[in-house]
TrEMBL record:
Domain annotation HTH araC/xylS-type: ranges: 153-250
Keywords: Dioxygenase, DNA-binding, Oxidoreductase, Repressor, Transcription, Transcription regulation
InterPro entries for the chain: AraC-bd, Homeodomain-like_sf, HTH_AraC, HTH_AraC-typ_CS, RmlC-like_jellyroll, RmlC_Cupin_sf
Signal sequence coordinates: none
An example molecular function term from Gene Ontology annotations: DNA-binding transcription factor activity
Protein name, per record: HTH-type transcriptional regulator RipA
Record bears the keyword Magnesium: no
Pfam families cross-referenced by the UniProt entry: AraC_binding (PF02311), HTH_18 (PF12833)
CDD domains: cupin_NimR-like_N
SUPFAM superfamilies associated with the record: Homeodomain-like, RmlC-like cupins
Length: 260
């Protein structure tokens, strides 16, 4: 993969059908990647952070950054592989993964550039325009590190698998052979936060794919252990600064269109 005589930076567009629970294990690329869920949603883990991407978001992954991609439900990942962003583009300065907005124009440009019959000059202009249009968008990632102590870690892993579980620390303690006070101390020292906040982050992380897919708030909040929608929305706003609706809100690609 290299630049041609027109200074083309975008060298390959790949499309990957991902059935539910598909995982592309941790790997790296020698070139930059823009990972986009052209249908469904994607979860991308990189740099100890996790992004949940609806069709209106993509993630710029700089060359050499280890990452993995997961599809919780049937999705299509459209990847743009970029050898060198042109000077003056924001992407050229991004040394870490960066979420970007996928506008209608960007979605149409991907379709335009995937035409194998496109002449080199028009392709060069299209690629430069697409890369120039990439703009960062705030996406708070909700990291919940696992504590190292085996007792606290057993509790943490159980909650990751079933975030709706409402057991108290004392109840968990009886299951893993520790007092509730001991577990509280282990979460604070091992995860860097209280057990209550850690469980909140796990629940919100579990909710993100369903939110990105547009599922009703009432269903999502119940599925991750909240008795009311208002309690879920309050927790979401407290951690991200915005409501669940605002977290993913942006201009959507045209209905019925998908990058090939």
């Amino acid at each position: 993969m290299s630049l041609n005589g027109h200074g083309i930076a975008l060298v390959l567009i790949g499309r990957f059908a991902m059935p539910a629970r598909t995982r592309f294990a941790r790997h790296t690329h020698e070139v930059h990647q823009l990972a986009w869920a052209s249908s469904g949603t994607l979860t991308v883990a990189a740099d100890a952070r996790t992004w949940v991407l609806p069709t209106t978001r993509a993630l710029w992954i700089p060359a050499g950054v280890p990452h993995e991609v997961i599809a919780a439900s049937h999705s299509t990942m459209t990847s743009l592989y970029v050898s060198a962003p042109p000077p003056g583009t924001a992407a050229r300065r991004w040394a870490e993964p960066q979420a970007v907005e996928v506008t209608r124009l960007i979605a149409e440009l991907v379709l335009f550039l995937d035409d194998p019959g496109l002449d080199a000059g028009r392709r060069a202009h299209g690629e430069t325009l697409l890369l120039d249009l990439l703009e960062p968008v705030p996406m708070t990632t909700l990291g919940a590190p696992l504590p190292a102590d085996p007792r606290a870690r057993a509790v943490a892993q159980a909650l990751v698998e079933a975030p709706e579980t409402a057991l108290s620390l004392d109840e968990w303690g009886r299951r893993v052979g520790a007092s509730g006070r001991t577990l509280a101390r282990l979460f604070l020292s091992g995860a860097g936060m209280t057990f209550g906040r850690w469980r909140t982050l796990v629940r919100l992380n579990a909710a993100l794919p369903a939110l990105a897919a547009g599922e009703p708030l009432s269903r999502v909040s119940r599925a991750v252990g909240y008795e009311t929608v208002s309690a879920f929305v309050a927790a979401f706003r407290r951690e991200t600064g915005v409501t669940p609706g605002a977290y993913f809100r942006t201009r959507r690609p045209p209905a019925g269109r998908e990058a090939p």
